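for the recovery benchmark. tokens below, seq after
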């Protein structure tokens, strides 16, 4: 009996030690990974709708303006609005990043690499700010890392690999489970949209295509200027994404 108690005690100590090591590892990862980038905009309203509709901002030089509110609560929380030529075309619920740490153990990372899923721990974060669309893909696009489907992906933050795309049809739990979460934070950082609305957004972006657009500061939305004080322009997609949180 005493021997059994001793073995049980050793197992308990080992379990507690393992748990403490896991907690410390996770805490260290949170401290290291959950840090906002210098280019991110502050919390609050970033999009002045009335000024935009009157054509008083540089946003009007983009054919499309996509406005996303990543807030967890509030009347406009987890929504996306699409404006084309200063006319509201669409308003719908979305799912942005969970804003927590997804902890991936070494074992799970190996399994995910073989099958499907992200291979390293990361902050499931959607960055705030002003971002021009950089890449546009079709229905069959898949994530290069996790291998999950990202139909109609439109990338706006290449640094963090963030895109607007359809709810992945191959989510664990199924596409319906992902659609049921729209209106709540649920993704790894991308902006998920229902299949009934994503093609409208994708068509607007591809129809506008590329042209000469002003380069806007990601934090303020103000145009960047060259050494002579003139507004800088570049060839790019005529669609800008604004991610705000209020």
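predicted aa per position
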């Amino acid at each position: 009996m005493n021997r059994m108690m001793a073995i049980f005690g050793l197992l308990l100590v080992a379990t507690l030690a393992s748990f403490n090591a896991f907690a410390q590892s996770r805490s260290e990862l949170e401290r290291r990974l959950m840090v906002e980038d210098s280019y991110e905009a502050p919390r609050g309203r970033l999009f002045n709708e009335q000024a935009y509709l009157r054509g008083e901002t540089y946003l009007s030089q983009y054919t499309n303006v996509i406005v996303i509110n990543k807030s967890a609560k509030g009347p406009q929380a987890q929504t996306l609005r699409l404006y084309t030529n200063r006319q509201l075309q669409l308003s719908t619920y979305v799912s942005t990043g969970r804003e927590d740490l997804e902890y991936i153990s070494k074992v799970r990372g190996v399994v995910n690499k073989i099958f499907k899923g992200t291979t390293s721990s990361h902050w499931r974060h959607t960055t705030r700010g002003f971002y021009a669309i950089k890449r546009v893909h079709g229905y069959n696009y898949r994530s290069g890392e996790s291998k999950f489907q990202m139909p109609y992906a439109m990338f706006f933050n290449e640094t963090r690999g963030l895109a607007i795309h359809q709810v992945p049809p191959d989510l664990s739990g199924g596409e319906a489970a992902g659609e049921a979460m729209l209106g709540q934070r649920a993704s790894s950082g991308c902006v998920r949209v229902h299949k009934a609305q994503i093609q409208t957004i994708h068509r607007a972006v591809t129809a506008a295509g590329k042209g000469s657009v002003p380069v806007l500061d990601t934090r303020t939305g103000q145009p960047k200027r060259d050494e002579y004080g003139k507004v800088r322009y570049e060839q790019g997609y005529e669609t800008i994404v604004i991610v705000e949180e209020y």
